[in-house]
Amino acid sequence: MNHSYNASSISDQEKAHKALLELEIKFNKKSRTGALGIQGSQIQALTGFNRIFEQYPYPVVINAAILKLADWFRTHNNVVKFYVYKVFKEASHQHLEKIINVEETIRRILPILGSNDTTARSITLRVLGCMSIIIAEKLDVQFGFELATDRLELQAAIWASDQICARSNRFPAVIFSKIDKKLRGHYYPSTSLDIKLQVVKIFRHMHEDIGMTREAQKTCLSLLNDSATGSELVIVTLRTLTLLISKAVIDQKEQIA
């Protein structure tokens, strides 16, 4: 019985590696450059990866596929990067958890955060957010995050920070002062309402450390006590404060009052 299962597994893995090779050949196929900086064959190849994940969900197969995607992400233009990001976005957590060489994957992707290209950095942040299930406690990832001034990159950083905060015990402390400043008017008086609405929600994750919880609570209360705070931000802040306090189990009377 086990012998039959192992033989079937090996056969499936061989088929999977053959399918991956076919996708790689299709991706590298020489043809005219597409109008958007990507060839149709490359799009077809990239959209085929999630089918392989579903059909052959073996760690060795998924690991090989992800490393190949990370290589293409590192070396190709932003259009290719975007389609690689879509593969990560559509991949299930169960599949991403099967990656064997997490460090190697990060080593290929993370350096792009040092690029001068804001679009490349934005896409990279979103890929890292998609990978939060396996990289949340990686310090090199955590300290690579900045809340930029470019709107596209800032939105990507906020989204990715929220994903990683949800799964990390340490990252909330790393990102806390950066998001706190975004909400305090004297630091960033020009922070728009929609950005504040996104940023304040991250405070719901600040419950692992009592001191940090109190600071997050203080910022939320200052927003609620500020007459300039609009009703939409008040509602989101109250909801965030409720989630924060319910997990931290402190100062519930003060919140209710």
Word description of this protein:
It contains 16 helices and no strands. Helix 5 (78-90) packs parallel to helix 8 (118-130) and helix 8 runs parallel beside helix 11. With 257 residues, the protein is mainly α. The chain is elongated.
**Percent in helix:** 55-70%
Q: Sum up the overall morphology in one term.
A: elongated
Largest sheet: none
- How much is the radius of gyration in Å? 22 Å
Distance between the termini: 65 Å
Count, helices: 16
Report the order of strands and helices. HHHHHHHHHHHHHHHH
E-strand count: 0
> How many discrete structural domains?
2
Protein name: Integrator complex subunit 7 N-terminal domain-containing protein
Organism: Rhizopus delemar (strain RA 99-880 / ATCC MYA-4621 / FGSC 9543 / NRRL 43880)
InterPro entries: ARM-type_fold, INTS7, INTS7_N
Family: Belongs to the Integrator subunit 7 family.
Brief overview, please?
The protein is an all-alpha fold and 257 residues long.
Topology:
Layout: H1 2-27, H2 40-47, H3 49-55, H4 59-75, H5 78-90, H6 93-96, H7 102-109, H8 118-130, H9 132-135, H10 139-142, H11 151-165, H12 171-183, H13 193-200, H14 210-225, H15 231-248, H16 252-256
Helix pairs in contact: 1-2, 1-4, 2-5, 4-5, 4-7, 5-8, 8-11, 12-14, 13-15, 14-15
Pfam family, one: INTS7_N
Family: Belongs to the Integrator subunit 7 family.
Domain Integrator complex subunit 7 N-terminal: 40-256
